[in-house]
């Protein structure tokens, strides 16, 4: 199912619920999209002949629109039934990484390492499980009968503040400071945000694991127990700090400009 089609059928559903008096802003609020987005979809639905306008924001479904909505509801129910079957089939089976060679039937302890779930015969936590499909050390295995809570210590963040272009950009960066921090935090996830930070990472031959949806990526990594070192350009640091404060994630900020007054 294409996202655009789903959104259009959601709009059709809202029009059916409240026709003929429904404002585009009301639809936008319900679906969590912009009014501009709703307007674009409305134009497309009018073009397809699935709705008609009575003017002043009054919309009603045409016969074709009602037929299309019924077909979509039927198809969506079928899709959900398939998903529900898959959930039921796999609800008790989880993937994990083998800490050592493991075979079917082994009783194991579970723990998190660098954001991934591991299974080991050694006591690593109070959480246990049974191996349903074994494998060699480092391979993915299947576990079931999970007992106990897998403890995850939230990761912390080191923000390396990179000067923006108006303050010298990559030419005003103390690369030694950055390299020393990276060397001291080799197990940390590396993130970059901003053009200058991207250039700096290239100069240091760094391949960041988080480049897009950076704020969500940093929070997600910390929630999975990973520490993060992030190169953030200029005032973008403020946005990152606000996000970390909101999610109660510990952090430190280090200014990496050679000439702070530049």
Task: Name the features.
single chain; Arc Repressor Mutant, subunit A; Rossmann fold; five-stranded mixed barrel; four-stranded parallel β-sheet
Concise structural overview:
With 262 residues, this protein is an alpha/beta fold. The chain contains 8 helices and 11 strands.
**How many domain units?**
3
Specify the helix fraction band: 40-55%
Shape: flat
Q: Mean of the pLDDT scores?
A: 88
CATH architecture of the largest domain: 3-Layer(aba) Sandwich
| Low-confidence spans | none
Count every helix, treating DSSP H or I runs of 4 or more residues as helices. 8
GO molecular function: DNA binding
Organism: Methanococcus aeolicus (strain ATCC BAA-1280 / DSM 17508 / OCM 812 / Nankai-3)
InterPro entries: DUF7839, HTH_CRP, UCP_HTH_arc, WH-like_DNA-bd_sf, WH_DNA-bd_sf
GO biological process, one term: regulation of DNA-templated transcription
């Amino acid at each position: 199912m294409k996202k655009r089609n789903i959104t259009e059928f959601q709009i059709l559903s809202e029009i059916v619920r409240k026709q003929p008096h429904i404002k585009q802003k009301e639809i936008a609020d319900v679906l969590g999209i912009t009014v501009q987005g709703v307007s674009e979809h409305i134009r497309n639905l009018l073009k397809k002949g699935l709705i008609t306008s009575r003017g002043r924001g009054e919309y009603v479904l045409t016969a074709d629109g009602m037929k299309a909505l019924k077909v979509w509801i039927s198809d969506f129910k079928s899709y959900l039934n398939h998903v529900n079957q898959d959930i039921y089939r796999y609800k008790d089976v989880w993937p994990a990484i083998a800490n050592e060679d493991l075979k079917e039937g082994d009783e194991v302890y579970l723990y998190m390492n660098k954001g991934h779930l591991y299974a080991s015969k050694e006591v690593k936590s109070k959480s246990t499980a049974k191996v349903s499909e074994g494998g060699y050390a480092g391979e993915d295995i299947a576990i079931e009968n999970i007992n106990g809570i897998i403890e995850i210590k939230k990761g912390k963040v080191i923000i390396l503040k990179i000067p923006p272009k108006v303050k010298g950009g990559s030419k005003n960066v103390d690369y030694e400071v950055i390299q020393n921090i990276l060397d001291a935090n080799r197990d940390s996830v590396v993130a970059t945000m901003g053009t200058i930070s991207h250039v700096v990472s290239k100069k240091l031959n760094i391949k960041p694991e988080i480049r897009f949806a950076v704020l969500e990526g940093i929070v997600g990594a910390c929630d999975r127990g990973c520490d993060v070192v992030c190169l953030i350009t200029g005032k973008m640091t403020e946005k990152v700090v606000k996000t970390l404060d909101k999610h109660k994630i510990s952090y430190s900020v280090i200014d990496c400009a050679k000439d702070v007054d530049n």
